[in-house]
């Protein structure tokens, strides 16, 4: 059976206190005093204490900025070209760091047959998959796949591809590498979508190896569902000044209304019962999403403590985040784990893992 046998993660050098990011954002916001008070409350209630970035600009003096303009209003504001140049400079080193942390060195296990790269915060061709093959000295005839622009649930989608590969090839070893540099896409307009995304997202990378094994976290089954009537509630669009996140306030309500039925259907389709689930890995799209999920499932906040911890220490790192949670669960717990992620579509994705 296909199994996640190795997991590792990495974060960039620059660690930011949420309070420092709040000061930066308040300084850049041109809203009224009432707007700024509301923003302050949002940061206070975010459940986030620290986040990481590939740039130092969110915590340093204006004169020390390396990415944004040193002017008070950040003008000229970085173009999409400048943001993608920074992505190309920093994404690969962070991804390689995650690989190194996964295996303890860059001496990868022999016989890796496939590589899947995952990212929604930067794209180019040749892309991250080709760069990884070169940096890790993988065979140039290796099978490669890129999962792009799918957002926070993309890790589950990549694992689903790896599972299918392992089921079709007994000796397959699939390396999945995820890297997200969300902080490159800061937007300064006084819009609730931008304010929300600015307070949530951080940078990170993760890696895992999937192979047919009786060790690790065995993949028991998947289930996904699209809520097409809510497509406008969450989106990720390219503009001349970066990628624009659309994150409407009704998203937690949509999850609250649907998560219990979604989980029940996933369990039934995969021949599991709720009382067989010992661990829950819920993507922390925000503190409210975690709160309403725990309430709707009747599991209590302690049951998703790893999700709260990752949100607290790293923020939302898009596709990487679930691997940070699974790394903790793999290290400290055993039994069945229900994994759920949410993203544009609106899409709900799930995976059931079993650690023997």
Automatic annotation (TrEMBL):
Matches recorded under Gene3D superfamilies: 3.40.47.10
Any single Pfam family the record assigns to this protein: Chal_sti_synt_N
Record flagged with keyword Transferase: yes
Domain Chalcone/stilbene synthase C-terminal, residue spans: 228-356
CDD domains, per database record: CHS_like (cd00831)
Gene Ontology molecular functions: acyltransferase activity, transferring groups other than amino-acyl groups
Record-annotated active site: 152 (acyl-thioester intermediate)
Gene Ontology terms describing biological process: polyketide biosynthetic process
SUPFAM superfamilies: Thiolase-like
Name by which UniProt lists this protein: Type III polyketide synthase
